[in-house]
Amino acid sequence: MWLIRALSQNMIKYNGVVVSKNYKHGVGGGTGYPLVDAGMRQLNETRYMHNRVRMVTASFLVKHLLVDWRLGEAYFATKLLDYDLSANNGNWQWAAGTGCDSAPYFRIFNPITQFKKKDPALVYTKEWVRDLDESTYLAPIVDHKYARERCLNTYKFTLR
Questions:
Q1: In order of start, what are the domains of the chain with their CATH numbers?
Q2: Mean pLDDT, residues 81-100 taken together
Q3: What angle do CA 55, 2, 79 make, to 5 degrees?
Q4: pTM (2 d.p.)
Q5: Which residues contact 65 (CB under 8 A, 6 or more apart)?
């Protein structure tokens, strides 16, 4: 219930970043980053997503968009056919750099590099991002370099 209340109140978190706007773009597959969009569109359509893409999308939501990991975990919990409470919760904490066995907070997946490395022939991405080659495909909603620096600064500030 807190998730719905937070989003309906246009919850603001992390130095003025409007979470609900970023959250809606992220989970809707409208980020302008092809691998992230492909993963979220696949999840929304089939209720499944490959593990590598789960890591990339989770990292993108929590680190590029500064969405609280609990929002992403709750969304995936409602969507995944293979949902498992402990695995989902632990994976989101790992992606966010929190929890008992997490990736360091400064590990931020580059969605462009991941896209080029993991789907160089565009087989997966074109299956889910059908408008990839069209002029109507979205521009990135946030610049990677800017988002990375903002995330690092936010985490460093929080750890003081």
A1: 2-159 (1.10.579.10)
A2: 90
A3: 40
A4: 0.87
A5: 17, 19, 22, 23, 25, 26, 31, 141, 142, 147
